[in-house]
Design a protein that fits this description.
The chain has one domain. About 70% of the residues lie in helices and about 0% in strands. It has four helices and no strands.
């Protein structure tokens, strides 16, 4: 087996990983599009973060294998699903949402080009802030559940 054959096999392996990561990303996006109001929001954010990490790692491997991202024309104006848009009652710290919005804008810019390295970095930035948001929203949910439980116990007394 030659070096060229090894390289071809590695590129084929990376392309399979790209397809798998892309499918996971699409599934995470669908979860937000089809979401009932507020149910499982933290978990959906966690799923988005995990999908973005898979995309990041996959595109880092693709870059290392010499592969390019296929540009998405017009992506600069793409918006995330409704529940992730500003002004829709997003829960969590505003500072994290501002970082999230900036990360979405950066990903949109990256995917209009062909640099797998830039796409990987943009997915990584989105993964980081989505994971922080998931944690913050989960903590808010836990605090709200404890407060509601205290109110119920007082009412039963």
């Amino acid at each position: 087996m030659s070096f060229g054959d090894d390289l071809d096999q590695e590129r084929a392996r990376v392309m399979r990983a790209v397809r798998d990561a892309s499918a996971g990303w699409a599934q995470a996006m669908r979860a937000h599009k089809l979401a009932p109001p507020d149910a499982g929001f933290a978990e959906r954010l966690r799923g988005l973060a995990e999908a973005a990490v898979r995309e990041q790692v996959t595109w880092e491997h693709a870059h290392a294998a010499g592969l390019l991202w296929r540009p998405v024309p017009g992506a600069e104006t793409a918006e995330p699903p409704y529940e992730l848009l500003p002004g829709t009652g997003r829960r969590g710290p505003e500072e994290l949402w501002e970082r999230f919005d900036a990360a979405v804008a950066e990903l949109n810019r990256a995917i209009t080009g062909s640099s797998a390295e830039n796409v990987a970095a943009a997915f990584g930035g989105l993964a980081d802030v989505a994971a922080e948001l998931a944690g913050a929203v989960a903590r808010e949910d836990e605090d709200a559940a404890r407060a509601a439980d205290r109110v119920r116990r007082r009412g039963a007394a």
